Amino acid sequence: MSADLLRLMDQAIGGAQTTPRPWARLTAPQRQFMARRDPVLLWRGGNQIGKSTALAVDAIDFARGAHLGDQTHPPPVRVMVMGPSWEQMEPLMRRIWEVCPRDELDPRAGYDPGRGITGKPPRLLFVRGPGAGSVVQFATYEQGVQRLAGATLHRVVLDEPPPEDVYAEAIPRVLRMSGHVRIGCTPTPGMADLTYLKKKVEAGEVPEMVIPLNEQSCWPVGALRPWLTQAQIDRQAILWPARERGMRLRGDWEPLAEGAWLSAFDDSCVSADPPPPGAWLIVSGDHGTDPGKQRFVLTAMVGAETERPRAWFLGEYAPEGYSTPEQDAEGVLRMLREAGLEYDHVDDWVADRSAQTRDAVTKKANGLLRAELARLLRRTAESMKWIHTPRKYEGSVVDGYRLFNALFARRDPSGRPHGLIHPRCKHLIAAARTFKGREREPAKDILDGARYGLERAIRRRDWIDLPTTYRYRT
Question: pTM value?
Fold first, then answer.
């Protein structure tokens, strides 16, 4: 049976995915979630299980008076949809726009791919149809409780659990109208503290649904196939570090306490195979003033602009004891020479923020390293390449290690990993084998130094495209 025929049969059974009322396309867990009438309800489950789609349909159907499970208030109603940030809310906004009947909206309503629902503040106003007069508003947790203060709402939809103060403000906002709060959540290590919500669930104050990610939970009722097969789920699970796999698959509250984070790393990831000519070369590092804390890594990458990047970790500078900025510059240049490279072959530089001892006698900083490199190379400081600082955000550490694990987990048909560490990188290899995610674990320093380079090489594709000067010497 052809793929086109399967698609047509799917549409005949359940209707197109973008229809305003895609109830027939929902899975059993999505229907179960929407049928509940609890004042507050948490859906805790695996990634890609359809929580955001259920929240989108829930919000729009409720605003239109067409909710098949929980239409406790006739329109017009006021719905508030909130999430951690505008960037993180964009996927939910896209789903809401897809299921919303456009001919019922105020003509000024719009959606901008990559940004979300437009307007200041963003909102969808229904001016005709069964939901005439209803409004769906959008806000972020970053805006704080002020966005909720004083509002009278019939429904609050929370995409990922909010900070405790935002949750505490949402409850009284729906109290006057006997309204509802709906929360979708896949806990992750980088998420805000969920202790308060876990305690409310355990005390019975917040009912919850817990649905694991498996093929059955991804199968729309009446459809010919799921949107994720078990084989696809199993392949994706390998890419997640073992520490967070239970959270991603089952919605566990906490990450695995023990076990190496880079669970996909094994002996096949250690290789002296060179990268191809033209690979992007980056030196990245983590500053430290204590003995054994200064760490730099030399990385070559190809395909950083694609969904399947490859990386070769070619060298490391990892002094065992205390080092001065002069010694650091010498060590970095030595690292390059050991790989058959010189300073001018490096395309990009990135290193962490400056570090100094409490008495400020010893300091490590990008500017100092750049100046010492210039001195050793007998150049002016102005002629040296800039050493950037890494972009950090809540959850960036976990995202970086997830990228590491994906490189080691993805393999060619021959079994060759997409991430390879040269045998001379002894500290990086040891760290990949043993790191367990503790903040002060010594292995973290060199892994941080390496991940800063990975993250910069991959992120820069979004804003700049420069010609590479790197030609690898075998």
Answer: 0.61
